[in-house]
Structures are given as C-alpha cells and as structure tokens.
Amino acid sequence: MKFVKMHGLxxxxxxVAEFSHVPADIATRAIAVCDRHFxxxxxxxxxxxxxxxxDVQMRIFNADGTEPEQCxxxxxxxxxxxxxxxxxTSDTITVETRAGLQRLRLFLAEGRVASVxxxxxxxxxxxxxxxxxxxxxxxxxxxxxxxxxxxxxxxxSMGNPHAVIFVDDxxxxxxxxxxxxxxxxxxxxxxxxxEFVEVHSRTEVTMHVWERGVGETLACGSGAxxxxxxxxxxxxxxxxxxxxxxxxxLQIDWREAxxxxxxxxxxxxxxxxxxxxx
Length: 278
What we know:
Helix content is about 15%, strand content about 45%. By secondary structure, the protein is an alpha+beta fold.
C-alpha cells in the first residue's frame, strides 16, 4: 500500500489515495498502519477517494480503527496532497467528508501548498445534536463529575463532538487521567474529544487535547475551532483567536457575518513509502 506520511502541527497521518472505495477491512488496516512499532505510526489513516459532489472525498480512520466524522488537521493535509500531487489545479477546492462539504483555500509558496484555510462550517450548539444528553442550547459550562474532579464543560460540535474546559493552569491538569474519563462519560453518547484551555488574552489561548479514539495528540483542528466558539460563548475571547497547541498554532475565526468557523494552519509532507501489510 503506497502512502504519504503527513502532519498538521504534529497531528500525523498516513495518507492513501490508491483506492476507489473504502476496503472492507479498513478498521484492521488502520490499526496496523497507525501502530508506531509495527506500522507507519500515525494518529490516523486518511483515504482520499473520488467524489460525486466535491473535488475529492476524505475518509479518516483513527488509530483504534474507529471513523470520526471529520478532522480539521487531516483535511488540511488532504488539500495539500490534492494540489501537490496533481489531483486538483485550483487553489480553492472542496472536500467531501462525513460531516458535509468543506471548502478549502490553498496558500502557495514556490508552487506547493504551505498553509490551508478551511471553512469548517457553522458550529452545532444544541446539546442533543452535539450529541450530549443535555437538552439545552448552548450547553455552556455544564458541570460534569468524574472520579476525583468536576469540570464545567461547554459542548460544541464541529461535525464531531467536543467538550471544552477552561482552566487557570494547563500544567496542573492530569490529561492522561481525566481525558479518557471525560471522553467516555455518559454525558456523551458517542464519546467526545476533550480540550483543556488556558486563556492568555481575548485573542490568544493555549489548549491541550485528548482526542476521541486516539488519546493525546499534538494538535486537533476541529478542537481548536470548538475552543474558538466556546471562548465566545463564555465571554472569554473575541471571534478571532490564535490557538497555541503543542504542535504549533492555528488561527480561528468565527465570523459573525455568516456564522461559520474558518481555520488556517500548515500541512506538511514528511515522506513517501510503501507498506507491506501482513
């Protein structure tokens, strides 16, 4: 299987564009490919497929074989792959995802994609649609108790569910203990991504993320978008905010004019290869 190893701010993927449809054993393949000892090593396996409604279709499978609705870092990688490898020739393209159609603007440097602006769409704020078990809109700083802590959670869906938690000091948060407890909490019927956020100013924050089906990652694009929305909903930030992640920075803009969230950040090719699955 030919692949290109790519990452968006350290959130890394094996990107494959050789299939015309999703193989029946894709979950098993994803687990094998993403294994960091016996496979390529990645947070997810990304398939670029033909589409009847967009320039290309993206399907992403997490390291545990599950399929999320979409991924902001992965879709930037898809945009770069599509242009750099000649699948498209325009610097504005569309990508079909399970969360709907996403529009990308590609910023070029020396004929290749250096960064990508993604129209991530309007956030979903109705609690049952996120989904959570709370029938409210929005679910804003709702208290959630776990084994030895309680957190006020703001729930946002960017096509996939997010629980955003603002804290005073990120370094005091036991992410690897509380992240999985919150991910699988009964409040979230399809589990959730978890973002802990420290606010520096109305235009700048830092976040750490525990991704559903993956664990801690260096970045999460849809999570950064959810953080931007939650910052506005809780009165902590402006609509345009710079989000610092462990892998780098994303610019998030929840535009009042159209209600849609725009994310801008880099996408990088690391290497190309062929994997021989046993």
